[in-house]
Specification:
The complex is a heterodimer of chains A (107) and B (234). Chain A is 73% helix and 0% strand. With 107 residues, chain A is mostly helical. Chain B is mainly α. Chain B folds into two domains: 28 residues; 175 residues, no CATH class. Chain B is built from eight helices and no strands. The chains are: A mainly alpha (107), B mainly alpha (234). Chains A and B meet through helix 1, helix 2 and helix 3 of A and helix 1, helix 2, helix 3, helix 4 and helix 6 of B.
Chain lengths: 107, 234
Protein backbone atom coordinates (compact mmCIF):
# COMPACT_ATOMS: atom_id res chain seq x y z
CA UNK A 1 0.00 0.00 0.00
CA UNK A 2 1.73 3.16 -1.18
CA UNK A 3 0.56 6.75 -1.44
CA UNK A 4 0.10 6.36 -5.20
CA UNK A 5 -2.16 3.38 -4.71
CA UNK A 6 -4.15 5.43 -2.23
CA UNK A 7 -4.67 8.04 -4.98
CA UNK A 8 -5.93 5.35 -7.33
CA UNK A 9 -8.36 4.01 -4.71
CA UNK A 10 -9.51 7.58 -3.95
CA UNK A 11 -10.16 7.84 -7.69
CA UNK A 12 -12.47 4.83 -7.46
CA UNK A 13 -14.35 6.50 -4.58
CA UNK A 14 -14.65 9.77 -6.54
CA UNK A 15 -15.98 7.80 -9.49
CA UNK A 16 -18.75 6.32 -7.35
CA UNK A 17 -19.62 9.69 -5.81
CA UNK A 18 -19.78 11.31 -9.22
CA UNK A 19 -21.93 8.52 -10.60
CA UNK A 20 -24.38 8.91 -7.73
CA UNK A 21 -24.60 12.64 -8.32
CA UNK A 22 -25.06 12.19 -12.05
CA UNK A 23 -27.93 9.77 -11.52
CA UNK A 24 -29.69 11.39 -8.57
CA UNK A 25 -29.26 15.17 -8.73
CA UNK A 26 -31.95 16.83 -10.83
CA UNK A 27 -30.27 20.16 -11.60
CA UNK A 28 -28.32 20.05 -14.88
CA UNK A 29 -25.38 22.04 -13.57
CA UNK A 30 -25.05 19.65 -10.64
CA UNK A 31 -25.17 16.73 -13.05
CA UNK A 32 -22.36 18.31 -15.04
CA UNK A 33 -20.26 18.86 -11.93
CA UNK A 34 -20.90 15.29 -10.82
CA UNK A 35 -19.84 14.06 -14.25
CA UNK A 36 -16.63 16.05 -13.94
CA UNK A 37 -15.98 14.50 -10.53
CA UNK A 38 -16.38 11.09 -12.18
CA UNK A 39 -13.86 12.11 -14.81
CA UNK A 40 -11.44 13.35 -12.17
CA UNK A 41 -11.71 9.97 -10.48
CA UNK A 42 -10.74 8.25 -13.71
CA UNK A 43 -7.77 10.61 -14.14
CA UNK A 44 -6.68 9.92 -10.59
CA UNK A 45 -6.78 6.17 -11.24
CA UNK A 46 -4.85 6.60 -14.48
CA UNK A 47 -2.10 8.64 -12.83
CA UNK A 48 -1.98 6.87 -9.47
CA UNK A 49 -1.99 3.26 -10.56
CA UNK A 50 1.10 3.33 -12.85
CA UNK A 51 2.92 5.55 -10.35
CA UNK A 52 2.49 2.81 -7.76
CA UNK A 53 5.27 0.90 -9.48
CA UNK A 54 8.56 2.60 -10.20
CA UNK A 55 7.75 6.28 -10.06
CA UNK A 56 5.94 8.59 -12.48
CA UNK A 57 5.03 7.10 -15.85
CA UNK A 58 4.92 9.78 -18.58
CA UNK A 59 2.60 7.86 -20.91
CA UNK A 60 -0.54 7.80 -18.74
CA UNK A 61 0.29 11.36 -17.70
CA UNK A 62 0.24 12.47 -21.31
CA UNK A 63 -3.04 10.64 -21.88
CA UNK A 64 -4.55 12.29 -18.79
CA UNK A 65 -3.35 15.70 -20.00
CA UNK A 66 -5.16 15.09 -23.29
CA UNK A 67 -8.19 13.94 -21.34
CA UNK A 68 -8.23 17.05 -19.15
CA UNK A 69 -8.22 19.37 -22.15
CA UNK A 70 -11.03 17.44 -23.82
CA UNK A 71 -12.98 17.41 -20.53
CA UNK A 72 -12.67 21.20 -20.21
CA UNK A 73 -13.89 21.74 -23.76
CA UNK A 74 -16.76 19.29 -23.29
CA UNK A 75 -17.75 20.95 -20.01
CA UNK A 76 -17.74 24.38 -21.63
CA UNK A 77 -19.87 23.06 -24.49
CA UNK A 78 -22.26 21.47 -21.99
CA UNK A 79 -22.61 24.81 -20.17
CA UNK A 80 -23.34 26.55 -23.48
CA UNK A 81 -26.00 23.93 -24.33
CA UNK A 82 -27.46 24.20 -20.83
CA UNK A 83 -27.82 27.95 -21.02
CA UNK A 84 -29.44 27.61 -24.42
CA UNK A 85 -31.84 25.02 -23.00
CA UNK A 86 -32.65 27.26 -20.07
CA UNK A 87 -33.17 30.17 -22.41
CA UNK A 88 -35.60 28.20 -24.57
CA UNK A 89 -37.48 26.26 -21.90
CA UNK A 90 -36.94 28.16 -18.67
CA UNK A 91 -36.10 24.89 -16.95
CA UNK A 92 -32.94 23.73 -15.26
CA UNK A 93 -33.84 20.04 -15.11
CA UNK A 94 -34.64 17.42 -17.68
CA UNK A 95 -37.60 16.09 -15.71
CA UNK A 96 -41.19 16.74 -16.64
CA UNK A 97 -42.40 19.87 -14.88
CA UNK A 98 -45.14 19.34 -12.31
CA UNK A 99 -48.49 21.02 -13.10
CA UNK A 100 -47.79 24.20 -11.14
CA UNK A 101 -44.53 24.83 -13.02
CA UNK A 102 -45.41 25.33 -16.63
CA UNK A 103 -42.65 25.48 -19.27
CA UNK A 104 -41.43 29.02 -19.57
CA UNK A 105 -41.84 29.74 -15.88
CA UNK A 106 -38.52 30.79 -14.35
CA UNK A 107 -37.65 29.05 -11.17
CA UNK B 1 -42.15 9.62 -1.05
CA UNK B 2 -41.73 5.86 -1.22
CA UNK B 3 -40.66 5.55 -4.86
CA UNK B 4 -37.99 8.21 -4.47
CA UNK B 5 -36.62 6.50 -1.37
CA UNK B 6 -36.35 3.16 -3.18
CA UNK B 7 -34.67 4.79 -6.15
CA UNK B 8 -32.12 6.50 -3.92
CA UNK B 9 -31.37 3.18 -2.25
CA UNK B 10 -30.94 1.35 -5.56
CA UNK B 11 -28.71 4.11 -6.97
CA UNK B 12 -26.59 4.12 -3.82
CA UNK B 13 -26.16 0.36 -4.00
CA UNK B 14 -25.30 0.53 -7.69
CA UNK B 15 -22.69 3.24 -7.15
CA UNK B 16 -21.19 1.45 -4.18
CA UNK B 17 -20.99 -1.79 -6.16
CA UNK B 18 -19.34 -0.12 -9.16
CA UNK B 19 -16.93 1.79 -6.95
CA UNK B 20 -16.06 -1.38 -5.07
CA UNK B 21 -15.52 -3.33 -8.29
CA UNK B 22 -13.27 -0.56 -9.60
CA UNK B 23 -11.28 -0.49 -6.35
CA UNK B 24 -10.97 -4.28 -6.36
CA UNK B 25 -9.65 -4.31 -9.92
CA UNK B 26 -7.19 -1.51 -9.05
CA UNK B 27 -6.00 -3.62 -6.12
CA UNK B 28 -5.65 -6.67 -8.35
CA UNK B 29 -3.75 -4.78 -11.06
CA UNK B 30 -1.46 -3.17 -8.50
CA UNK B 31 -0.48 -6.60 -7.20
CA UNK B 32 0.52 -8.06 -10.56
CA UNK B 33 3.67 -7.24 -12.53
CA UNK B 34 3.21 -5.44 -15.85
CA UNK B 35 3.96 -7.43 -19.00
CA UNK B 36 5.58 -4.45 -20.78
CA UNK B 37 7.84 -1.91 -19.12
CA UNK B 38 6.54 1.21 -20.89
CA UNK B 39 8.56 3.82 -18.97
CA UNK B 40 11.82 2.03 -19.81
CA UNK B 41 10.78 1.64 -23.45
CA UNK B 42 10.12 5.36 -23.50
CA UNK B 43 13.39 6.39 -21.87
CA UNK B 44 15.32 4.19 -24.30
CA UNK B 45 13.73 5.99 -27.26
CA UNK B 46 13.86 9.52 -25.85
CA UNK B 47 16.83 10.61 -27.98
CA UNK B 48 14.77 9.98 -31.13
CA UNK B 49 11.88 12.14 -30.00
CA UNK B 50 13.42 15.58 -30.64
CA UNK B 51 12.46 16.94 -27.20
CA UNK B 52 13.85 16.32 -23.75
CA UNK B 53 10.65 16.12 -21.69
CA UNK B 54 9.00 12.68 -21.72
CA UNK B 55 5.39 13.90 -21.50
CA UNK B 56 5.89 16.25 -24.45
CA UNK B 57 7.63 13.46 -26.36
CA UNK B 58 4.64 11.17 -25.81
CA UNK B 59 2.11 13.87 -26.66
CA UNK B 60 3.68 15.18 -29.82
CA UNK B 61 5.75 12.32 -31.13
CA UNK B 62 5.04 8.82 -29.89
CA UNK B 63 1.30 9.26 -29.38
CA UNK B 64 0.71 12.29 -31.59
CA UNK B 65 -2.31 10.55 -33.07
CA UNK B 66 -4.13 11.14 -29.76
CA UNK B 67 -3.21 14.80 -29.81
CA UNK B 68 -4.37 15.16 -33.40
CA UNK B 69 -7.74 13.64 -32.54
CA UNK B 70 -7.92 15.77 -29.41
CA UNK B 71 -7.54 19.03 -31.26
CA UNK B 72 -10.16 17.70 -33.69
CA UNK B 73 -12.59 17.16 -30.80
CA UNK B 74 -11.82 20.64 -29.50
CA UNK B 75 -12.52 22.26 -32.86
CA UNK B 76 -15.84 20.41 -33.12
CA UNK B 77 -16.78 21.53 -29.59
CA UNK B 78 -15.86 25.12 -30.47
CA UNK B 79 -17.91 25.09 -33.65
CA UNK B 80 -20.89 23.57 -31.84
CA UNK B 81 -20.59 26.22 -29.12
CA UNK B 82 -20.43 29.07 -31.61
CA UNK B 83 -23.47 27.78 -33.46
CA UNK B 84 -25.39 28.06 -30.17
CA UNK B 85 -24.38 31.69 -29.69
CA UNK B 86 -27.33 33.97 -29.10
CA UNK B 87 -25.76 37.38 -29.21
CA UNK B 88 -25.12 38.74 -32.66
CA UNK B 89 -22.59 41.14 -31.23
CA UNK B 90 -20.28 39.44 -28.83
CA UNK B 91 -19.55 42.78 -27.16
CA UNK B 92 -22.73 42.85 -25.14
CA UNK B 93 -22.41 45.73 -22.66
CA UNK B 94 -24.39 43.70 -20.10
CA UNK B 95 -21.56 41.20 -19.94
CA UNK B 96 -19.02 43.77 -18.88
CA UNK B 97 -18.15 44.36 -15.32
CA UNK B 98 -17.33 47.85 -14.18
CA UNK B 99 -14.89 46.86 -11.51
CA UNK B 100 -12.09 49.37 -11.16
CA UNK B 101 -9.90 46.83 -9.41
CA UNK B 102 -10.22 44.50 -12.38
CA UNK B 103 -9.23 47.29 -14.78
CA UNK B 104 -6.20 48.15 -12.69
CA UNK B 105 -5.11 44.54 -12.35
CA UNK B 106 -5.70 43.86 -16.00
CA UNK B 107 -3.06 46.32 -17.09
CA UNK B 108 -0.55 44.31 -15.09
CA UNK B 109 -1.85 40.85 -15.66
CA UNK B 110 -2.51 40.68 -19.38
CA UNK B 111 1.07 41.25 -20.59
CA UNK B 112 2.43 39.09 -17.78
CA UNK B 113 0.10 36.23 -18.61
CA UNK B 114 0.96 36.40 -22.30
CA UNK B 115 4.66 36.25 -21.45
CA UNK B 116 3.96 33.32 -19.12
CA UNK B 117 2.10 31.52 -21.91
CA UNK B 118 5.06 32.00 -24.22
CA UNK B 119 7.40 30.67 -21.56
CA UNK B 120 5.20 27.61 -20.91
CA UNK B 121 5.10 26.87 -24.61
CA UNK B 122 8.87 27.02 -24.92
CA UNK B 123 9.55 25.20 -21.64
CA UNK B 124 7.51 22.21 -22.84
CA UNK B 125 10.58 20.89 -24.65
CA UNK B 126 12.52 20.03 -21.52
CA UNK B 127 10.31 20.49 -18.45
CA UNK B 128 6.59 20.47 -17.63
CA UNK B 129 4.73 22.82 -19.92
CA UNK B 130 3.61 22.79 -23.50
CA UNK B 131 0.78 23.67 -25.83
CA UNK B 132 -2.09 22.79 -23.50
CA UNK B 133 -0.88 24.71 -20.50
CA UNK B 134 0.05 27.69 -22.66
CA UNK B 135 -3.30 27.55 -24.45
CA UNK B 136 -5.15 27.50 -21.14
CA UNK B 137 -3.22 30.56 -19.93
CA UNK B 138 -3.91 32.44 -23.19
CA UNK B 139 -7.59 31.54 -22.91
CA UNK B 140 -7.67 32.76 -19.30
CA UNK B 141 -6.10 36.03 -20.45
CA UNK B 142 -8.83 36.31 -23.05
CA UNK B 143 -11.52 35.70 -20.43
CA UNK B 144 -10.00 38.40 -18.23
CA UNK B 145 -9.86 40.84 -21.14
CA UNK B 146 -13.42 40.03 -22.06
CA UNK B 147 -14.69 40.63 -18.52
CA UNK B 148 -12.89 43.95 -18.55
CA UNK B 149 -14.66 44.92 -21.74
CA UNK B 150 -11.66 45.10 -24.03
CA UNK B 151 -13.12 44.80 -27.53
CA UNK B 152 -12.12 41.58 -29.24
CA UNK B 153 -13.58 41.80 -32.69
CA UNK B 154 -11.89 38.68 -33.92
CA UNK B 155 -14.22 36.59 -31.78
CA UNK B 156 -17.25 37.63 -33.80
CA UNK B 157 -18.22 34.64 -35.91
CA UNK B 158 -16.26 35.37 -39.03
CA UNK B 159 -13.17 34.58 -40.99
CA UNK B 160 -10.60 35.28 -38.29
CA UNK B 161 -12.36 33.12 -35.69
CA UNK B 162 -12.73 30.22 -38.11
CA UNK B 163 -9.12 30.54 -39.18
CA UNK B 164 -7.93 30.53 -35.58
CA UNK B 165 -10.09 27.54 -34.69
CA UNK B 166 -9.00 25.49 -37.66
CA UNK B 167 -5.34 26.46 -37.77
CA UNK B 168 -3.99 24.01 -35.20
CA UNK B 169 -5.84 21.03 -36.58
CA UNK B 170 -5.02 21.86 -40.21
CA UNK B 171 -1.30 22.40 -39.64
CA UNK B 172 -1.09 19.17 -37.64
CA UNK B 173 -2.97 17.27 -40.34
CA UNK B 174 -0.83 18.78 -43.13
CA UNK B 175 2.34 17.65 -41.34
CA UNK B 176 0.88 14.18 -40.83
CA UNK B 177 -0.23 13.77 -44.44
CA UNK B 178 2.99 15.28 -45.79
CA UNK B 179 5.07 12.72 -43.91
CA UNK B 180 2.78 9.97 -45.17
CA UNK B 181 3.21 11.16 -48.76
CA UNK B 182 6.94 11.47 -48.22
CA UNK B 183 7.18 7.73 -47.62
CA UNK B 184 7.17 7.67 -43.83
CA UNK B 185 4.34 6.44 -41.66
CA UNK B 186 1.37 8.70 -41.00
CA UNK B 187 2.50 11.30 -38.43
CA UNK B 188 6.13 10.14 -38.42
CA UNK B 189 8.24 13.28 -38.59
CA UNK B 190 11.17 13.25 -41.01
CA UNK B 191 14.46 12.87 -39.10
CA UNK B 192 16.28 16.13 -38.48
CA UNK B 193 13.14 18.24 -38.64
CA UNK B 194 11.53 16.73 -35.56
CA UNK B 195 12.22 19.55 -33.12
CA UNK B 196 11.26 22.30 -35.56
CA UNK B 197 8.03 20.56 -36.52
CA UNK B 198 7.09 19.95 -32.88
CA UNK B 199 7.64 23.63 -32.03
CA UNK B 200 5.54 24.76 -35.02
CA UNK B 201 2.74 22.33 -34.16
CA UNK B 202 2.81 23.32 -30.49
CA UNK B 203 2.57 27.01 -31.36
CA UNK B 204 -0.45 26.62 -33.61
CA UNK B 205 -2.02 24.21 -31.13
CA UNK B 206 -1.65 26.84 -28.40
CA UNK B 207 -3.45 29.39 -30.54
CA UNK B 208 -6.25 27.01 -31.49
CA UNK B 209 -6.80 25.68 -27.97
CA UNK B 210 -6.98 29.24 -26.63
CA UNK B 211 -9.42 30.23 -29.39
CA UNK B 212 -11.67 27.21 -28.76
CA UNK B 213 -11.85 27.78 -25.00
CA UNK B 214 -12.40 31.51 -25.40
CA UNK B 215 -15.02 31.01 -28.11
CA UNK B 216 -16.88 28.59 -25.83
CA UNK B 217 -16.70 31.12 -23.01
CA UNK B 218 -18.09 34.01 -25.00
CA UNK B 219 -20.70 32.00 -26.87
CA UNK B 220 -22.68 31.08 -23.76
CA UNK B 221 -26.01 32.73 -24.47
CA UNK B 222 -27.19 35.54 -22.26
CA UNK B 223 -30.32 35.02 -20.19
CA UNK B 224 -32.05 38.21 -21.20
CA UNK B 225 -30.86 38.35 -24.79
CA UNK B 226 -33.35 39.07 -27.52
CA UNK B 227 -34.90 35.82 -28.60
CA UNK B 228 -35.35 35.81 -32.35
CA UNK B 229 -37.43 33.06 -33.93
CA UNK B 230 -35.57 29.88 -34.75
CA UNK B 231 -33.96 30.34 -38.13
CA UNK B 232 -34.74 34.06 -38.14
CA UNK B 233 -32.11 36.78 -38.36
CA UNK B 234 -29.87 36.61 -35.33
Amino acid sequence: MTASLLYALAGAVLFGMGLYGLLRLPHLLRKLLAFNIMGSGVFLVMVGLPQHRGGADPIPQALVLTGIVVAIAATALAVVLMRRYYHLSGMTTLEEPSPEQRPGGRR
Amino acid sequence: MMAGWVRTLITTLLCLTLSGALAASIWAIAGNPTPVDLPRLLSENMDRSGVAHPVTAVLLNFRSYDTLLEIGVLVIAGIAGISMAKTASLEDPELRTSDTLLYALQRWFVPLMLVLAGYLLWAGAERPGGAFQAGAVVAATGVLMRLGGIPMDFLRPGLLLRLGLGLGFSVFLVVAVASAIGGEAFLAYPPGLTKALIVVIESVLTLSIAMVLLALFVSAPVNDAEDPEEGGPA
